[in-house]
Each structure stands twice: as C-alpha cells, then as structure tokens.
Amino acid sequence: MAMRKNERLMNLLIMLLVTRRHLDKEHIRSLLYEGSSEEAFEKMFERDKDDLRSLGVPIEMASQDAFFDDVQGYRIPRSAYELPDIDLDADEAAVLGLAARVWQHAGLAAATSDALLKLKAAGIDVDREALDIVEPQITAQEPSFDAFWDACQRRQPVTFDYQRSGSTEPQTRMLQPWRVTWTNGRWYVLGYDVDRADTRLFRLSRVQGEVRPAGLPGSYDLPADLDSEAITRQLTPTSPATEAATVLARSGSAHGLRRLATSVEAGVTGPDGLPWDRLHLEADLPWLADEVLGFASDVCAESPSNLRDTVVARLRETVGA
C-alpha cells in the first residue's frame, strides 16, 4: 500500500535530519520511494523537498566526496534547523510550557521507527539525538484527528456522523475539509459543508464513529482568499458559562484535567480507599461530564451534585444500551 504523503514527509524529515552524512538520491529512493519509477520518484522527491522547505526546514545539498562533485547528497543540518538559545521570563516560559506538547499518535510514532530502521538496515550512521528538535508539537487525542488531517492534505471529501450539542441522534455530514484547527482548548475541522452549501466548523469530539472518504483525492481546491483563522474565530461557539467543580483523580492520571485545574489537593481518600488527588476546576459542566466519562475509572465526579447526576445517568444509559 502506498505511503501517505504526511507519513512520507515525516520519514524524509527524520532521515535527512538523523543521518551523519549526505544521502544521495539512490539511497533516498531505495529507502523511502521503493517501487516508484525514476520519473515518479523525481516528481515526488522534488515536491516533498518543496513542502519541507515551505515549512521552514533547511535542506542542504552537497557533494559526498571532497574530490568529486558529480554525486550530490542531501541532509538537514541540525545547527541550521534547531532554535538558538532563548532567554524567557518566568511568565513567558509558563505560557510556552502549556502550549508546547509532544504530539503522540500512532502514525508519527510508526514513521519515526520506520525511518530509523531503514537507515540502520542500509548501514547508515544515524544521530538519534537529532530527533529531539522535532518533538515539540500539540497533543492530539481525538480519534478522528488523523482522518481529518489526512483528508485536508489530500483534499479529499469525507462523510461522518456528527452529534450536535443538545441533539439526541447524530446526523451524517459531507465535508470538503480545509484545515484542522485548535481553538478554545478543542480541536475543530473547518471546511465546506456540501449538503448545506456553506462553510462550517465541526468539533472533533462530537464526531461519532469513523470518518469515511466520499470522493477522490484532489477533487476540490481551497478558496484562494481563505483566511482560516478569521473564519474559525467567526464560527467558534461562544464559551459557555462555567461553574466551580471538583473531581477526584488517581495519582498520575487525567493530565488534561490537571492542566485546567485551579488547584490540586494531594492525598485525598479516593472511592477505593487509596490516596487520590482532588482537582478544583472552573468548567462547563456538560463538557466536564464528558471528560470524566472519557477517563473511565481514573476519575470520579465529586461536586456539584448535578455533575455527579449527569455522569451517573450517562453511565446507566450505557449499561442499558
């Protein structure tokens, strides 16, 4: 099966970053573009290099031999790609600490392992520590994230079942996705809703089941004047009213809720008699109920009573179903 473009780009980035010498085209083709014709390889390789450079990745081309310059090789110099030392105030460091997270999902983890294994199998010396400079990203825990991200890259229409807030049944939607975006602490996909013939923003946590292809890749173009940030701000729902709430969490769990907590009490007796942590939050209670259910037995709703009632009611519905 052909490798997805975003996975191939990640492989190429890793290969050129960790190698200690310049890789020639033949090595790159055999390791990453296996089975492609010479013409197809040249086209894909040139496009992939352009894509990486457009993201600010410097690709260096140089001769592999000090005395002969007829065989050119490629490499990403670590010194040109990594950031210089930056002095930050305490508050600036705190903001960056909240924003910079490691994007951990199966697709990129597999790409990393695959790239390193191929280089080592070919007898190429690699610098594993060079990967440290491509790690800071954003956490993506939504099951549909990869599917929407891939559809945006491929410009491929998709259908999916979506349950709006307050509705009892999900509806099937057809979308030409433009961007996957993060705003107000949630992931959304922005695109053209084919059935409504209008621009729409969908929250990924409300997508039910699988995201399904509904057309060929490259079957639509992005608007020439697309300002995704402005449209996202315009379409993002207003923040709901928040209330004070407390939940109990096992030690070492529920990191997403911990980051939102106004304070944390350690060593509180949990429902199993063991030490848990009490998290104090200001949150939209329906949203918090969803989060508590998502952490299963690691989190227990404590107060207010209507938060507990909502969680219990949804658990009973699940057991009944």
List the helices and strands and how they pair.
Elements: H1 5-18, E1 23-24, H2 25-32, H3 38-54, E2 60-63, E3 72-75, H4 78-81, H5 90-99, E4 101-102, H6 106-121, E5 136-137, H7 145-154, E6 158-162, E7 171-183, E8 186-193, E9 198-203, E10 207-213, H8 228-235, E11 243-250, H9 255-260, E12 263-269, E13 275-283, H10 285-294, E14 299-303, H11 305-320
Antiparallel strand pairs: 1-3, 2-3, 4-5, 6-7, 6-10, 7-8, 8-9, 11-13, 11-14, 12-13
Helix pairs in contact: 1-6, 10-11
Q: Give me the Rg, rounded.
A: 24 Å
> Count of DSSP E strands?
14
**Gross geometry:** globular
The helix-strand sequence is HEHHEEHHEHEHEEEEEHEHEEHEH
Number of helices: 11
- The multimeric state of the shown protein is single chain
Low-confidence stretches: 94-111, 132-139
Category from helices, strands and their pairing: alpha+beta
Instruction: Please report which band the strand proportion falls in: under 5%, 5-15%, 15-25%, 25-35%, 35-45% or over 45%.
Output: 25-35%
Q: For the terminal residues, how far apart are their CA atoms? A: 38 Å
Structurally, the number of domains stands at 3
What's the pLDDT, averaged over the residues? 78
Characterize the biggest β-sheet: 5 strands, antiparallel
Q: Give the spatial strand order of the biggest sheet.
A: 9-8-7-6-10
> What percentage of residues falls in helices of 4 or more residues?
25-40%
Task: Pick out its properties.
321 residues, alpha+beta, SH3 type barrels, 3 domains, five-stranded antiparallel sheet
